[in-house]
Amino acid sequence: MNVLIVSPLPPPSGGIATWTEGIRNYYQGGRDGVSIAVLNTSLTGRRAEVVSNQRNFWDEVKRTWTLLRAFRRMLREERPDVIHLNTAGAQFGMYRDWLMARAAHHAGVPVVVHFRCDVQNKAEFNHRAFRAFRWLVKKADRILVLNQASQDYVKRFTETPVDVVCNYSALWERDSVISVREKLRRVVYVGRVWENKGIHELLEAAAQLPDIEIHLFGREYGVFEKMEYPANVHRHGNVEHARVREELLASDVFVLPSHTEGFSNALVEAMAVGLPCVATDVGANAEMLSDGCGIVIPPFMPEKLVAAIEQLRDTSMRRELSAKVHDRYLQNYTIEAVTAKLASVWSRCCR
C-alpha cells in the first residue's frame, strides 16, 4: 500500500512535523507492506522563524500554487493508493487542503483528512474558516481527529466516518521511567512560551510556590521574551529532544496549563516517562489523564494549578500517578499502537 502524506517535516520542528517524520521513519523500507512518501508543506523563510507573523495574501496564493503543482506531480510519480492530508485547521491551509483533495479525487485516489487541532476552535474562528472546514470535510473519504470533542463536532457536518487517532511518543526507551523522590522540588513545562499555553497562570502559580523550581523549556514569544519572571522560574529556551527527555526524567511533576489544545505531544512525552501530570481540561488532555491517571483542572485558574501542585507534595500520590500514567502510555500512545490504527484506516479507504 502506497501512502502519500501531505504534511510538514522538520525543520522547523513542531508537533505535526515531528509526527510525520516518525511515521515515515517507522515505515522505512516498506514495513508491513506500507510505503510512505511525503509532500513537505513546511514553512520557509521568516514565516518559519516567527510563528505569529502575519500572512501576506499573495504570498499564500503563490505558496498554494507551488504546493498544488508538486502534489499533482507526486500523484503521477508515486501512484499512491491513499492520500493522508494533515491539516492544522488554519483558514488558508484548509482551502489549500480542499484543492488537493479535489485533485486527488480527479485522479481516483481516496483522501484521509487528519485534523491536527481542536476542530471547533479552528472551524469557528470566522465565517471564512468555517466555510473552508465545511468544504474540506465534504471532500474526505475518511476523517481523523485527535479527541472526542472534535469527533462529536465534525460528525454534526458529515456522514463520512470520523475516527479518533491519537498522537504517539516514540522518543523514549520503554524502561525510562522517573524515580519518584520523597520531596517535590521540580516542576517542568515543555512547549511554546506564550499566552495561549497558560504561561501567565503558570507564573502566577510559581509566585505562590517559592520553594519549588519551575523549569520552562520552549521558545518565548511576545511579552514573555522581556518580562520579569519570579525568582524560582528557570528559562531554558529551545532544546534538543534528547535534552527534553533528560529534563523530564529529572523532574517531579509536569504541568500543561493551556487554554486550547488538540492533542499535546509534550503531555504524552511526560506520560511516557511516568511523570505525574497536571493539565487543563482542553483538547484531549482530560481523555489522556482519565481514570485517575493525572490531575485535570479548568483553564485560566492559577489557584487551581497551585492546589494541584500542592496536592502532589504527597509522595505516595505521585508514586501512584507515575505507575498509572506510564501504563496508559504503553497501552495507547506508542508508535506501534498509533500506526496500527492508521494502517487500518488506510486499508479501509483503499478497499
Q: Can you give keywords for this protein?
A:
single chain, Rossmann fold, 2 domains, six-stranded parallel beta sheet, about 350 residues, 14 helices
Description:
This protein is an alpha/beta fold and 351 residues long. The protein folds into two domains: 2-168 and 334-350, Rossmann fold, CATH 3.40.50; 186-332, Glycogen Phosphorylase B (Rossmann fold, 3-Layer(aba) Sandwich), CATH 3.40.50.2000. It is built from 14 helices and twelve strands. It has helices at residues 15-26, 46-49, 57-78, 91-106, 119-123, 127-138, 148-155, 199-207, 241-249, 265-272, 285-288, 302-311, 315-332, 335-350; strands at 2-7, 35-40, 82-87, 111-115, 142-145, 162-164, 186-190, 213-217, 233-235, 253-256, 277-280, 295-297. The strands form two sheets. It has a six-stranded parallel β-sheet with strand order 2-1-3-4-5-6, with helices on both faces. The protein has a six-stranded parallel β-sheet with strand order 9-8-7-10-11-12, sandwiched between helices. Mean pLDDT is 93; it is low at 46-53.
Protein topology:
Layout lengths: L1 E6 L7 H12 L8 E6 L5 H4 L7 H22 L3 E6 L3 H16 L4 E5 L3 H5 L3 H12 L3 E4 L2 H8 L6 E3 L21 E5 L8 H9 L5 E5 L15 E3 L5 H9 L3 E4 L8 H8 L4 E4 L4 H4 L6 E3 L4 H10 L3 H18 L2 H16 L1
Parallel strand pairs: 1-2, 1-3, 3-4, 4-5, 5-6, 7-8, 7-10, 8-9, 10-11, 11-12
